[in-house]
């Protein structure tokens, strides 16, 4: 029997590299030189993370999060108060 898990991942630029992490899996982070490499590393990191939870007989978290983007607009040029 096979069980599939789906998790939201986030990849952000971090200097010359990319930082990837899984918000639903605390401590599940990785890096890569490219976005594609970071995605591969994230998949590996998730697999190892879940395998360790299974071995330790711990609960595997589900990802019930959702993502939303908000856009705010300001007239340009705008005054800057410092």
Automatic annotation (TrEMBL):
InterPro entries: HicB-like, TA_system_antitoxin, TTHA1013/TTHA0281-like. Residues 7-69 form the HicB-like antitoxin of toxin-antitoxin system domain. Pfam families: HicB_lk_antitox. It comes from the Bacteria. Gene3D superfamilies: 3.30.160.250. This is HicB-like antitoxin of toxin-antitoxin system domain-containing protein. It comes from Candidatus Nomurabacteria bacterium GW2011_GWD2_39_12.
């Amino acid at each position: 029997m096979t069980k599939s898990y789906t998790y939201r991942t986030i990849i952000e630029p971090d200097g010359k590299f990319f930082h990837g992490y899984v918000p639903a899996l605390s401590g599940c982070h990785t890096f890569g030189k490219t976005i594609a490499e970071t995605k591969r590393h994230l998949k590996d990191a998730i697999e190892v993370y879940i395998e360790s939870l299974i071995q330790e007989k711990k609960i595997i978290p589900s990802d019930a999060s959702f993502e939303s983007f908000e856009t705010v607009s300001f007239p340009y040029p705008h005054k800057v108060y410092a």
